[in-house]
Every structure is written in structure tokens, then in C-alpha cells.
Design brief:
Chain lengths: 337, 392, 140
């Protein structure tokens, strides 16, 4: 039984901080951002996720949610079932297969795949997937410079599919990767050894991609879009090139320079951006990555017409923004209050 | 129903009194009220008491503050009830006292009010002030009390074209009156330009649109008209009295440019007194915020809807004008110790109608009929009293 | 300390706060928000059926709260935003409701402008996040 995406939605908070603000504050900006998104004081990953979900549900031809999977590395509570809150806000039924995913930036695809699997088991109906993130680090740490915010949501189902899930895989390894956060800490740590930590990313993403190609008997040329976890402005482009994916297949999914590192929501947002441009028959390869480390891949075949008439593309939405200065940024990230 | 009169009235100065708590303030007002009874009165004549207070001493005595206060003034066995209706607590206390006498059960009843607001930090005061609106749906909307009234002003300005300048005239007038009132918290004139350019509070309001936080107490001795002359040759009679409520939250009201509770209360009072608004010689109205006085002119029938700004422009409601409003200084200049305000308004009218305003310059000449208007919060409740020199 | 809203009390109103759950009078069809026991229009005590409100409406009146004067629950937010608008909105189904406005336009709030409801954090007390509705300028 085919399972795939029925509709999608996204939300980027309006506030932006520009690279120049970091330069003014610290003398340089340690991230390849032009600017990045910042949640308002009264927003959090839950409210952003709800915004994305509302758009997604509005654009779904039918709504019959039987499963919910939510993902973030920065949920508002470290321990609390949040599915109930989500269900109450979106008027979902109480009888719901709900799962909550965190623990690394791979959480978004973990939620996506779990929800798809739940449907694939004949549980019927549809699944709602929400990935939302706004990671934080101490202002004096370089890793902080690139951390952004955003949310994406998908309705998955077995009917009215616009992008069918062809294949999924998952790889893990014991390699610290770049970032981690000990229990009880709100701020990310980065071991700061880029060359060493880059190995985890390269190896795990490569493994995931090669496994897909092998399993489906394809090459890079068969894919129209490649979406990869963005943790900086360079790695995805450079690895994609090495693996034979041309620039125009990668560019549509690149959002880092505009919204920063959106953690668990990264690949989900990039997927939404790609769906805005995809056409019937296109193939999309998505690879997520989480430090610590792990990767997952999902291969899609677009079988419908993703772009609905009532929707604003994600790139168009990015134009609705308001720049803030560094002091305001620190306030919004609750670093000085 | 028995006819009702006031035979004595007194109040403390309104202001900030670090050395006086609610007990001391209440006692001071009570003693002055007793002294004001021309032929003297044994306090044992008082058979019932209603005391208005919102915070009950900034919250230290939410339960049974009325017996506490009555015990303090030597009347421990007089039945006493705390009356609460936010800023109309005093008016409701007076209304209750009037009804107790009008019923025929009691001849002499004490009505009073007291509030201690200056003891606590402004953070705590914000809590007390904030709970006069709908806590769940107004306060949790980030709306302060000033914000609620400011929304009224916004809409009024939108519907009727009232200007910032006209609104500012309320404070100018009331401060000018307050200079002449020894009981007033603020006794300094303020220029129109100053009022217009005050520090913002809640658009369109600035600090000059908002009444202060105040300590104070007031006491009124209400008496069956049949016995009034035992105590004074010049009792002041309650010719009419009205009271009403409305939905607490302004979002539930049909219109926010008029306070229906005040309208209903006023109509009831006018009907009972069998007079028209034009017959009123002076009025003490509830100017907790500038717009409240503007709206009061219309709710009380002093002018047509939308015309209140004109009354201010023409000076109609100044001392010396056709219908002087708030010659005491009003809540803005005289002060607003929440529970005490309603009875404090009665104290002013009592003295004015007897020709004994403490500063002669403040005396409204030949006043026969007075009116006081006391509103709870943003109009959830209201009382209107009409006072006359003669029995009606 | 005065006007404290307990967690259970807040919980009882999450239908209203999270998704603008309104009531429709079973006798005359009038829509209410927030809930009442008796219909405001016909007075019936017969009961209501829940109806989800769209969150769309127009600004009926507004004010802009100066930060220093914000209610205690909003002190931090006020320190962040400086001032914030509070709007009285007339919802398209009829009822009016007050809430903060977010993403207010550069040239200020205007009576009559179209708005839509969004879910945001209202405040945190007892380590529990209280979510609720606010309004932003309508996106269409």
C-alpha cells in the first residue's frame, strides 16, 4: 500500500538577525548566514509547529488524522506529553497514535518515517508530522551564530498522495559529531574540531545516499532534487558535488543562509521548499543527519501536483520579515532576561 | 418605603499616609462625620454599617474587615458588612445603607469606605487594580485597567471625533478645582500642554488621563427622614437613588462608548426624584480615567450622545458653569481610594448643598440638587444618587 | 496574590484559549465567546453546542500599553517589546474578544483593520506555559 505526502505547510518566524549584527557584536560572524530567523518572545517550537500544521491541514483535501509525530531538539518541555496540547490546539481526536521525537537534529526524519510506517501498517487514516526547532547555545560560542528557527508539517496518507515514499533507510554510528547537550543543559556544546567531526556527517550521509541508489538501482542523475541536513553553508554543496548531484538539484533545498540551522526541522523545511518547485514525475532524495551520530534517507516520487493554488511558497514567505538588532536578539533568545 | 436623609458626613484627606492604616483612616473619617452632625449624635444610634473596600487593607484582612473596623471605633456589636464592587464599593455601601433605612428596619445606618493603596509596591498595586476587569479574558489579554478604559476612549474618539485636546481638558478642569479642596490629594493646577504631552500609559492615555492610587476613608451617616431634624436643621435628602450592573468584560457589551449600568442607575434615580438632568446643580462623577468623565456627561443626560467634548470646550462643567462637575477635584485631583470614593462623593455634595464647602471659592452657589455617580471597574456596576436640600 | 489563575482553572478554558471554541445557542443560534450559561440574545438556558470560531475579525477598538504599566504576567514580554497593542476584535461570527496584537503594522493599529487569531505563549506561572490566542494582521 502506497504511503506518501498529502499536503505540507511551513512557518518561519518573522524576526531576522543579519550577519552584520554579529559582526558588530563580536567582530565577525562564525556562520555562513546572510541572516537567520528568530522566534518572537511569545513564540516557541510548539507555537511555530502549530502554525505550520494549520497551513498543512488547510491544504489537505481531506482531514482524518489517526497518528501524530512531532519532532524538535528544543521542545518547550523536556518532559511532558505535548501531543495532547497539539491535539487540543488543532482539534485532533484524543484517540491518536502519537510519538514525540527529540534527541538530535535527525528527529524530524525520525518523526516522518515513524508516522509513515504507522500508516503503512494498515492503521489507516492519515498522519500529521510536525518538525519544529529553535536550538540555543551560549552567545559567546561560535556554534550559536548559525542557530535559527522554523517549522514544517506534513500530512501523510494512503490516498490523494502528491509525493509517494518509495524507500527509507537509517544508519547510526558512535561518533560524537559536532554537537551535543548533556542532560539538564539548555545550551549546545560543540567539540569544535571541524575536520574530525565532519567525518561523521560525510560518512553517514554518503552511506544513506549510496544505500538508496543501490536499493532502487539508480544514480544521482535519476534524482531531480537532493535535500540534506544543513548545519552550515558549505557541507551540503560540497558533499553533493562529490556524489554527483548537480547544483540545480541541490539549490532549491538550501535555506541555511536565510534562516540558519533549524535543527530537527531542517530537512523538513527544505523538503517543503523543494515541493514548492517539484512537478509530477520528479524524484526527491532526502537525507537527514544528527550528531552523535545518525542519518536517515527517504526517497520520494512526485505523483501529483504539489503546489496548491492557495499557498504562498516558502521562499515567498521568507520575504515577510523584520530585522532586529543583537540586543533584541539576546532578549528574544532569553539570554539576558 | 421610608424617606432617607444624610445627617453627617466626613472624610480623611486623600493622599499618601505612611503612618496610618485602614483602622486609623476609618476612625478619622468616622470622627469627622460624627462632628459634622450639627446637634450632636450618640454613636450608639448607629444600628447597622456597610463599609466599602476593594482590597481590604491591601489584602491583609479579606475576611471580616467590617467588624474589625467597627470594633476599632467603639461599635463592636453593630452588624457590619463589607461591600465590594470595585470602585463602586463606596456607592454600593451607601446604597445598602439607604435601603436599610428605607426598609424601615433601621433608623440610622453608617455607610463608609476605606482603601489603603500606598503601602505596597506598584507591582502589587497592579494586581489589585487589574482584578477589577474580567481577569480571565481581559487581564490575560495583557490589558491593564487603564488599557480597558483606553479602548473605550479609542472607540469614542473614532465614533465621535473627540480630540486629544478635549480629553485633556478633564484633567485641567479637575486639577483647577482640586486646588481649592483641602481634602484633595493633588492641589496644583496643570496646563493643557502638559496634560497633552504626558508620559504614555495606554494609548490614547498618558499619566494625566489616569486617577492616582490613594489612601483614604469616608463615612456618611444615613438617617430616616422622619428623625433627621433631631440631629440637624439641614439634613440633605436622598431624592433618588439607582443602581445597576452590566457584563463585567467590555467585550460582552453592545457598546463601549456608554456605560449601560450608569445609564440605568441614572434613569432610576431621576425617575424616583422626578427630575430631569437639567435640574441638577452640581455633580460628582467617576473620572477614574478622563474618558470616564466624558462618557458620564452623556450617561447622566447632561448632553446628547457625542456632544460631551463640546461641554468641555465651552466650560459648561467648570465651577461657575451651567453644571459644575467634580468641583471637589474629582478622582483625578481629589484622589481615588477605591472603596472610599463613593461615600466621599456624598461627603462633598452634603457640604455643598448645605453651603459649607470648606473653601468658599469652591462653593457652588444656590445649589439645590446634587448628583453623585460611582462606577465599578469598567462599568460592571454603577450607583447614582440624587441629593436635595428639601424633602421630595 | 490576588487574581491568580490556578492551573486547573486555566485548564478548564483551553478549548477557548487554544482553538477559540465558541458556543452556539440551541434555541436561537446566537454565537457566544467566551462561554456563558444563558444566551445573551434570547436568554435561553437550554444549552449550547460547541462551534470552532475562525479567528478572523476586525479591530473594534485598541490601545497600546506602555511597557512599564503591563500586568505582572507580562512584565518580561513588555521588557522585550517595549510597548504592545491590545485589540478588541469583533469576530466574524459576532462576538467580541480582547487580546494582544502581534506583528503590528509599522504605521500602527487602525480601527477596522482585519486580523486573524494565532496561538502564542501568554505567560508562564508555576513552571507551566499558558498558551492562548493573540491577533495579527490578516495575511490575506
Amino acid at each position: 500500500m502506497a504511503v506518501g505526502i498529502v499536503s505540507y505547510g511551513s512557518y518561519i518566524p518573522r524576526a531576522r538577525i543579519a550577519r552584520t549584527e554579529y559582526q558588530k557584536a563580536w567582530g565577525s560572524c562564525g556562520a555562513d548566514i546572510k541572516e537567520k530567523a528568530v522566534p518572537e518572545f511569545d513564540e516557541d517550537t510548539l507555537t511555530m509547529g502549530i502554525e505550520a500544521a494549520k497551513e498543512c491541514l488547510r491544504n489537505s483535501p481531506t482531514v482524518s488524522i489517526g497518528a501524530l509525530a512531532i519532532a524538535s531538539t528544543s521542545f518547550p518541555y523536556e518532559e511532558k506529553v505535548m501531543s495532547g496540547t497539539v491535539a487540543a490546539m488543532l482539534n485532533l481526536p484524543e484517540r491518536l497514535f502519537s510519538t514525540e521525537h527529540g534527541q538530535s537534529t535527525r528527529a524530524g526524519s525520525e518523526a516522518f518515517i515513524t508516522a509513515a510506517q504507522l500508516l503503512g501498517n494498515g492503521n489507516g487514516g492519515q498522519a500529521l508530522v510536525i518538525a519544529s526547532d529553535a536550538p540555543r547555545a551560549l552567545p559567546k560560542e561560535t556554534i550559536e551564530h548559525g542557530l535559527g528557527a522554523g517549522a514544517a508539517a506534513f500530512v501523510l496518507g494512503t490516498e490523494d498522495i502528491i509525493a509517494e515514499i518509495e524507500y527509507v533507510n537509517s544508519f547510526i554510528s558512535e561518533n560524537m559529531g559536532e554537537r551535543y547537550r548533556l542532560a539538564g543543559n539548555s545550551f549546545l556544546s560543540d567539540i569544535g574540531v571541524k575536520g574530525f567531526t565532519g567525518i561523521a556527517f560525510n560518512e553517514l550521509v554518503t552511506k544513506a545516499i549510496q544505500d538508496v541508489l543501490q536499493h532502487l538501482n539508480r544514480t544521482a542523475a535519476d534524482y531531480d532534487f537532493l535535500v540534506v541536513q544543513e548545519t552550515d553553508g558549505k557541507r551540503v554543496k560540497s558533499l553533493a558535488k562529490k556524489l554527483g548531484f548537480s547544483e540545480e538539484k541541490v539549490n532549491p533545498g538550501l535555506l541555511y543562509a536565510q534562516i540558519g540551522d533549524t535543527g530537527a526541522a531542517s530537512t523538513m523545511l527544505s523538503l517543503a521548499a523543494v515541493l514548492d518547485e517539484a512537478k509530477n514525475g520528479d524524484k526527491i532524495l532526502l537525507v537527514s543527519y544528527g550528531s552523535g551520530s545518525g542519518s536517515q534517507a527517504v526517497s520520494f516520487q512526485v505523483i501529483g501536483n504539489p503546489v496548491g493554488t492557495q499557498r504562498l511558497s516558502l521562499r515567498k514567505k521568507l520575504e515577510n520579515k523584520k530585522n532586529i538588532d543583537y540586543v533584541q536578539y539576546l532578549k528574544l533568545k532569553r539570554q539576558i532576561m | 418605603m421610608e424617606k432617607v436623609a444624610i445627617i453627617g458626613a466626613g472624610q480623611t484627606r486623600y493622599g499618601e499616609f505612611a503612618t496610618k492604616g485602614v483602622k486609623e483612616l476609618f476612625a478619622e473619617a468616622f470622627i469627622e462625620a460624627l462632628k459634622s452632625v450639627d446637634k450632636g449624635m450618640d454613636s450608639k444610634e448607629i444600628k447597622m454599617a456597610y463599609i466599602g473596600t476593594l482590597s481590604a487593607g491591601s489584602g491583609f484582612q479579606l475576611g471580616q474587615i467590617a467588624p474589625l473596623l467597627m470594633g476599632h471605633i467603639g461599635l463592636p456589636n453593630v452588624p457590619a458588612i463589607r461591600v465590594e464592587s470595585a470602585c463602586a464599593s463606596g456607592g454600593m455601601a451607601l446604597y445598602s445603607a439607604i435601603m436599610a433605612v428605607a426598609s424601615g428596619k433601621y433608623d440610622i445606618v453608617l455607610a463608609g469606605g476605606v482603601e489603603k493603596m500606598r503601602d505596597v509596591s506598584s507591582l502589587k498595586t497592579k494586581y489589585w487594580l487589574g482584578i477589577s476587569g474580567d481577569t480571565e479574558y481581559e487581564r490575560l489579554a495583557g490589558a491593564t485597567f487603564a488599557g480597558i478604559y483606553a479602548s473605550v476612549a479609542s472607540r469614542y474618539m473614532y465614533e465621535y471625533g473627540l480630540t486629544r485636546e478635549q480629553l485633556a481638558k478633564v484633567a485641567v478642569k479637575n486639577h483647577k478645582h482640586g486646588v481649592m479642596n483641602p481634602k484633595a490629594q493633588f492641589r496644583k493646577e496643570v496646563a493643557l500642554e502638559t496634560v497633552i504631552s504626558g508620559a504614555p500609559v495606554a494609548y490614547p492615555f498618558n499619566i494625566w488621563d489616569c486617577s492616582p492610587t490613594t489612601d483614604g476613608a469616608s463615612v456618611v451617616i444615613v438617617c430616616n427622614a422622619k428623625r433627621a431634624k433631631e440631629f440637624t436643621d439641614n439634613p440633605i435628602y436622598l431624592a433618588g437613588y439607582g443602581v445597576a450592573s452590566d457584563y463585567l468584560a467590555i467585550h460582552d457589551r453592545d457598546s463601549i462608548t456608554s456605560f449601560k449600568a450608569a445609564r440605568l442607575a441614572a434613569n432610576e434615580a431621576y425617575q424616583q426624584a422626578r427630575i430631569q438632568p437639567e435640574d441638577i446643580d452640581l455633580a460628582e462623577v467617576h473620572d477614574c480615567f478622563s474618558i470616564a468623565e466624558v462618557v458620564a456627561y452623556e450617561d447622566l443626560g447632561f448632553c446628547k450622545i457625542g456632544q460631551a467634548g463640546r461641554l468641555l470646550d465651552e466650560g459648561t462643567t467648570q465651577l461657575g458653569g451651567r453644571i459644575p462637575v467634580n468641583v471637589s477635584g474629582g478622582l483625578k485631583s481629589k484622589g481615588h481610594p477605591i472603596g472610599a470614593t463613593g461615600c466621599g462623593q456624598a461627603v462633598e455634595i452634603f457640604h455643598q448643598l448645605r453651603g459649607e464647602a470648606k473653601e468658599p471659592a469652591r462653593q457652588v452657589k444656590d445649589a439645590e440638587l446634587g448628583l453623585s455617580h460611582n462606577v465599578g471597574g469598567s462599568g460592571g456596576s454603577a450607583t447614582v444618587f440624587i441629593y436635595s436640600k428639601e424633602v421630595r | 496574590m490576588g487574581a491568580h489563575i490556578s492551573i486547573p482553572m486555566y485548564q478548564r478554558s483551553i478549548g477557548q484559549r487554544y482553538r477559540l471554541a465558541g458556543q452556539k445557542c440551541q434555541a436561537c443560534g446566537a454565537i457566544h465567546f467566551p462561554p456563558k450559561a444563558a444566551c445573551k440574545r434570547c436568554g435561553s438556558l437550554a444549552g449550547f453546542e460547541e462551534v470552532g470560531l475562525s479567528g478572523r475579525g476586525k479591530v473594534y477598538s485598541y490601545t497600546v500599553i506602555a511597557g512599564a504599566g503591563a500586568p505582572p504576567e507580562f512584565t518580561l514580554e513588555a521588557a522585550c517589546r517595549g510597548t504592545y497593542p491590545v485589540v478588541l476584535v469583533e469576530l466574524e461570527e459576532g462576538p467580541k474578544i480582547i487580546a494582544q496584537m502581534v506583528e503590528e503594522p509599522e504605521d500602527g493599529v487602525k480601527i477596522g483593520m482585519s486580523v486573524e487569531a494565532v496561538v502564542r505563549r501568554i505567560y508562564v506561572e508555576e513552571d507551566v506555559i499558558r498558551y492562548g490566542y493573540k491577533f495579527r494582521p490578516a495575511t490575506e
